[in-house]
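Reagents: none. Just compute today. Muramidase (Phage lysozyme).
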Amino acid sequence: MRRQILALALLAVCTGLPAAALAQAVSLLGEGGIFGAGSALVPVRHAPPVMQDAPDTDEGAGPSLFAGREGASLFAPGTPRAERMRMREGRNGLGHGPAGLRLSGTSAFFAASVRDLIARAEAGSKGYDAVQHGARIPPPRRPTEMSIAEIYAWIKATPRQPHAIGRYQFIPSTLRRLVNELGIDERTRFSPEVQDRLADLLLEEAGMGAFLAGSIDRRSFMNNLAKIWAGFPNSSGKSHYHGYAGNRATMTWAQFSAKIDSIFPG
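Predicted 3D structure written out:
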C-alpha cells in the first residue's frame, strides 16, 4: 500500500493531475490497479469473429476465438480498444458513432492486399455487389446502391435463405455487429468504402495487428482468417467449415500460403 501511495504521488507530480483524480482512476481499475503485475490499464473487449458463410442466425458465437491477443492492433498499436472507439470522424455518414478507425501507411497497404485475397476467395467477379448465390430472392438493387437499413429490410423480408452480401460476404449477424461497433448510421450507403471499413475490423479480430507485430506467426494468422472466411482453407487443406451448409475452400493451402507470402514477404 505504501508503494502504491508513493507511486500515486509521483504520477500526480509528473502528469499535473490532482492526486484525488488519479486515486479515483486507480480505484476504478480494481484491486490490482495500474500497479498490479500484468494488469491492463483499460480492459479490451474482443468481439467474437463469425464465419461469413454460415447460415443466418442471430445467436451469439460464444467466446472470442482470439482472446488474449490484444497486445497489438491493426489500427493503432498499443491503443486500447475503448480509447479507439471514442474516436470519431464526420465524413460519409461514418461520424454518427465511434467510427474513427482509419489505416495508413504499411497497415493500409497490407489490409488492402488481404482484402483483395478475401474477395478472390469469397465474392468472385461481382465484387462489392456480390450476393450469396443461394439467395432465391436477391436485393431489389445492387448492394452498393442500397443503404444499410435497406439491406436489413431485405434480410427481414426474405427469411429462410442465405443473405451473405458484399465483397466480403457479410452475414446478417456479423453485419449488424460490425455496424454497431463502428457506430455507422444505418442510413449510410453500403459503399465500397464502408465494406472495406467493416472488413478491416474483422482483420483486426483475426489478429492481423498481432501478426504484423510478431506476436503470432503466419500459420496462426492464416488459420484465423479461415475461421472467419470459409473460402479460405485452414492448415488441414480444407475449409474450417468444410461440408457445413455446402462450404468448401476455394483455393488450396499452398495457394493461400503463396498469396500470403507475396503480401508479407519475409
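The first helix runs from residue 2 to 15.
Action item: order primers for follow-up constructs.
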